## 1
Amino acid sequence: MKLQGRAKIYAISQVVISSLGFLSSLIGGGLLLVFGLFSGMIDPLTANEAGLMLVIGWTSLLIAVAFILALISAIFHLQGRSMPALQPSTQRIIQGALIVVWIVSILGVLLISRFQALNLITSLLIIPLVLVPILFFFWIGARNLSLGNRPRVWGAVAFNFSIMMPVVLLAELVLLFFIFMIAAVWLAGQPELLSQIMMYADQISNGLMEPLEAEQLITDLISRPIFLNGSILVVAILVPLLEELFKPMAIWFLAGKHLTPSQGFVGGLIGGACFAMLESLGAVGIPAESEWLILLFGRTGTGLLHVTLSGLVGWGFASAFYNRNWGRAIATYLGAVTIHGLWNFFALLSGIVPILPISEEMNNLPVLLGQIGVFVLVALFVINLVLLFSVNRQLQQQPAE
């Protein structure tokens, strides 16, 4: 039976979004791979930047594949047909193969990352190192649950890559603009500091600043309470408020589809997984220092954070739409913002406290919090994993509230 009315409009919209997304991702990914490959060969000093460009290029091609699947599912839906489903045994084989791919990839990266000429291969191996854990976190949360039919699932993926991510980026850019304006007004009353920053900015723009000078500049800035407190305000409060609101954005557009709480949870998981994949692949780059593995495992924890918390917020939003359970919507949103804020707070302190000058005025509190930061992050990782299992179990027992 072919679609009619609003369902047909949704399917056609998915065809358009998926087609445009595929073309832009394919072209953009190809250009990034070419530029990244040749820029690294021409100027070895820019190898790290070129490596990141290669990683983003492969990521764009991966997203192009997702858009193709969304396009195919929409076409099938318009024709009144269903996409072929994977059998459970096939899914288990794929999951086992992904584990093998992850192990081979990390061994490959450790072996060949020292050879700059192989950056194209190294950057490709980075993709499964980030993607595979995120997929497993999603499968844990979505086990025996569903967002609905496959066109809706792949439509949510296409929506998150094409709409949600640009909206989040735009919102954060607007936030940064207002922060910049406030900082500019404050600096206008600090002529000495403003003069120093202008001098450093001129040195950076002319390529005259040495690494030690740059490190000293950062240390000088973050040792000032207003910069440290401002960074905490932005990273631990404002950013979580924005991201946890927008990551499950696809749920907003399914509100009139009688979306159940379990479907909202799965829709949120999809949004969190898409966000986590793009954010992490844009952050890890290729190995440049011995601490790269720590960064990779840290981003794995961040991936779990985004998947779990976005699922919680999606569950809450869908509960509000489905049976007017606004209490759950508010509680899950505030809980997600709190956990996200704690994660960002301790991650920030763990990174900057080692370079802060110790003084009596600090009362050693930031130092203490920075020292326990790693343990808090591990505890938050466990909490998110437990939440993922427990909410999935609860929703399996109550499939329709």
## 2
Amino acid sequence: MRLKDCYNFADFRKLAEKKLPSPIFHYIDGAADDEITYKRNTSAFDDVDLVPNVLRGVENIDLSTTIFGKKLDLPFYCSPTALQRLFHYDGERAVGKAAQKFNTMFGVSALATVSVEEISSMIDTPKMFQFYFHKDRGLNDSCLERAKAANFDVMALTVDTITGGNRERDLRTGFTSPPKLTLSSLYSFATKPMWGINYLTKGKFELPHLQDFVNEGTSVNSSVGNYFSTMLDQSMNWNDAEKLCSKWGGHFALKGIMSVEDAKKAVDIGCTGIMVSNHGGRQLDGSRSPFDQLAEIVDAVGDKIDVICEGGFQRGTHMLKALSIGAKACAGGRLYLYALAAAGQAGVERALGQYKTELERDMKLMGCTKISELNRNNLRFRNL
């Protein structure tokens, strides 16, 4: 299977599985506990049907949307994800360049393998920094100041990782950052020699935002679940979020909001946006899908802040449904990570291009020429 044979999300996933050692692939692919929420994040879209209109004159389609004061050419963007250098040696560089080509937002994690300074010097597309609230206040201050100095447009505080999720696939495969060979994983790494050659010869694996403060994840092997559980500050509360929002002084979002109550609090502390998200099903298994929660959150705060639906998207039609509910934009990690693992920047560009083509075609079939024309009249919920 080659990149030119990838026509959809499932194809990129298959190619990524061929390219990556098992622990690395299952880190992307896995989720918490029984992975019920992970599956529901996508299956939720199947419970809603699209109702198209015809004879609307749809030769010209405008997919643009505006979030955090920035106009994007696409109504979806690349969510921040950790450790991208493990999936392809170009890591965040590849994703950032692809996002710029399509003029959409690129999210950079505090656990990124390329620095905010390098990203900022390389691309000028809108950029989001994903902030993890560490016990080490010096680390927190450093991340904030570096992202601000690098002219990042949005700070997104992740609020759903107060402790690590029970990612049992990682426990079985022995996944850590940086990777380590074990008796159980040795065969998997040996059968993917190009991954190993690229990992060892294409630059040193680093976590540039963390390594001056903590050893875990860069020079000391750590699972991501263990890192979250031990390094992040479990006392973080609304006062901390409000102070961080004020200190940042620009567009500020909470990533991982799932309840109306919390969405309203986000407005109260000065947020300009929220990501309705359950961290890709990787934290609390059995929680609702973002799409299932979207309508009530949009109804509560959608006229006050930007509401973004994050997670589960595998098709343009999935995005149409979330946008019709009232999301300002859609976002995802696996949305592009399998493509990154499959073929680097070329893979991400192919994936983003396919989503764009799907959306343009689907908008025409819906009888809509711009995102603002999508609404709940286009939908029918099967369980109502």
